[in-house]
Amino acid sequence: MPSPDSLMRTLDRRAGRESAALHTRIRGLREVTPDLAYLRLALVNVYFFGRRGARDREWVLVDAGTPGSAHAIERAARARFSWGARPSAIVLTHGHFDHVGALRDLAERWDVPVYAHALELPYITGQEPYPPADPTVGGGLLALMSPLYPRGPFDVRRDARALPDDGRVPGMPGWRWIHTPGHSRGHVSLFRDADRLLIAGDAFITQQQESLLAVLGQRVQLHGPPKYFTPDWVRARDSVRALAALDPMVAATGHGQPLIGEAMRRGLERLAWEFDRLAVPEHGRYVAIEPRGPARALAPRAPQPAAAARAGTSTVVLGVAAMAAAGAAAGMLASRH
What we know:
By secondary structure, this protein is of the alpha/beta class. It has 11 helices and 13 strands.
């Protein structure tokens, strides 16, 4: 009888095979469904909701990539949609630097509202940085480099809006947002009931994000959220279980390729119910810390002094450089496939 770990690897391989026919590549874009495509940018995915040829304000961007990726995102949008077509909204699953890197540039160029969960707004409106990364979780080079990654606060306060309280996703009829905290306080996932299509964000992912070798190899494997940036493992577990209960047909994640089929659903169910063993690191800054009360909004913080801002800028430059080097290697490999 195969061991549980052997079974998980078998499910991952089968999910990868079942997903192979899912992706139709169009100038760097890979199509998940006729109205959803994604672009891989330096180890992270951004998603384009809208059918090919959509006109101005008839499509939505989900997440905004790494710093310096604005031009690549715009090129992909021009390739998929009508020339000059701007999105009606940018929707964020969360505000970590690899999901908001091009956000300010794109929001200003397109003059478009940016939607995030109310609990995520302090991190993208200049009020509060994210908790420190945890390089002690192990797993590889990307985890070790994590203290260099920018924590914010990021600032798009002019364009930032809270997602509607009723669960609707602006510009995406038939979709609803689901609060999936753990990886960040205001993390959300997006779900369409009609075809059980899930945009999970980083609630769970399909590659081992801590390891540069695993990312470069593009090995398909279901994982919990990136360990080095996850401060609340109890809520992260609850969020994965909530998403597994939706029984998604397609899972499109922030890192790694989207997956489809029965093997994916079985793998996700197993990840949900064996989360503590499969996803939670054995040690680390945030391991075994129970959440204190319900998730809450953070109080506004005064703007950074100039000296602190300069120090923060140096950290951003180092972090972006580290991620860019890793991303360049990943991009070169991806271009060969």
